[in-house]
Specification:
mainly alpha; two-stranded antiparallel ribbon
């Protein structure tokens, strides 16, 4: 996607405009997903895991595949893995709109299972990255194929487990929908209209999300900060913006389980994208010779996910202001990761 040459100031202004469009489209998408879940009697956690996470990951999908075609290995890996800790920290921001820690609300263990399986896949990816994939078949590493296979097994297990009820916590707060004046009532809207609006929101997220990516790369060059640092900060933030707005909006309307599954589902998608990127990258296995920043990003992804896993299991946890302790620790870890990325850039 090409845009005319701009100065650093104009690049920043365009970046802000595109971010505003993505924010509006993402907020609308969260309401549409919630309405579709009610209309078709679907579990909101399942809608968040499969529909919402895939829709909000469209910029990452397009960016990753285009960067792989351009043989930009560092950009692919930094964008994918750098966004995991950032996206997970979005749940911490959602605490501002939840009545207490957002991890207090799930009644079933499927969210804890999502976090556990995400930690497993992150660990497998980190091991493969450190080993460097010494063996390749048609310049494709077996590690990326194994990650894709694990992802397929993860989705199968989560869908099968979603209908079970062998772990049910008690004495939990009841989520209450919170009004959001900017959104109209969709009760009289037909199913066809809701689906068309959902498609339109997805297209807006894809187009303007890609513009955000192009502008983030341009800002990296114009500011002199470098692609490695910007790849795991500004670029990851740009492609994580849809997850931010949809998760916050979901929390505002009381769809807490959808917000949690949206984030964990998006992070799982970040991992499985390694396989198609490896197919398109012709310089050998894409995880071979990955930079230290990539390993750090995976390690921080494991850390923040594990923190929320503890938060999902420990139902009564201390609060700091309106935030749960787990959210505070995740945001502190995110800040620490930015310092680490800058140090090894």
């Amino acid at each position: 996607m090409m845009i005319p040459d701009t100065t650093l100031t104009n690049s920043l202004l365009l970046f802000a405009f595109c971010a505003a469009v993505v924010w509006f489209a993402g907020a609308r998408l969260a309401y549409l997903a919630d309405a579709l879940a009610d209309r078709f009697h679907l579990a909101k956690s399942l809608v968040g895991l499969l529909l919402l996470s895939l829709a909000t990951s469209l910029p990452e999908v397009a960016t990753t595949l285009s960067a792989a075609v351009s043989q930009a290995q560092n950009l692919v890996l930094n964008n994918l893995f750098g966004g995991i800790a950032l996206q997970t920290a979005i749940l911490g921001l959602a605490d501002f709109w939840a009545r207490g820690a957002i991890t207090n609300y799930p009644r079933k263990a499927n969210h804890a299972l999502e976090a556990t399986l995400l930690v497993l896949l992150l660990s497998i990816t980190l091991i493969i990255t450190v080993m460097g994939e010494p063996v390749a078949l048609f310049q494709i590493g077996p590690g990326s194929a194994f990650i894709a296979l694990c992802y397929a097994g993860t989705i199968w297990l989560l869908r099968r487990y979603d209908a079970s009820s062998d772990w049910v916590p008690v004495d939990l707060p009841d989520p209450e929908a919170k009004p959001f004046l900017a959104v109209r009532d969709d009760s009289a809207t037909s199913n066809r209209a809701l689906i068309l609006q959902t498609i339109a929101a997805c297209i807006a997220i894809l187009v303007f999300g890609l513009l955000l990516v192009v502008l983030a790369e341009r800002i990296a060059v114009q500011s002199g900060l470098g692609t490695s640092f910007v790849g795991v900060t500004l670029l990851a933030a740009a492609t994580s913006l849809p997850e931010l707005t949809t998760s916050i909006t979901a929390a505002r309307i009381g769809a807490y389980t959808m917000a949690i599954s949206n984030i964990f589902g998006s992070n799982l998608i970040m991992l499985v994208l390694v396989f198609p990127a490896d197919i398109l990258y012709r310089g050998g296995p894409i995880l071979q010779g990955a930079s230290q920043t990539v390993s750090l990003a995976l390690a921080f992804g494991i850390t923040v996910t594990a923190i929320y896993l503890v938060g999902l299991i420990v139902r009564r946890k201390p609060r700091i202001g309106v935030l749960g302790l787990d959210s505070v620790l995740v945001m502190v870890t995110l800040l620490g990761s930015l310092v680490a990325y800058y140090y090894v850039r």
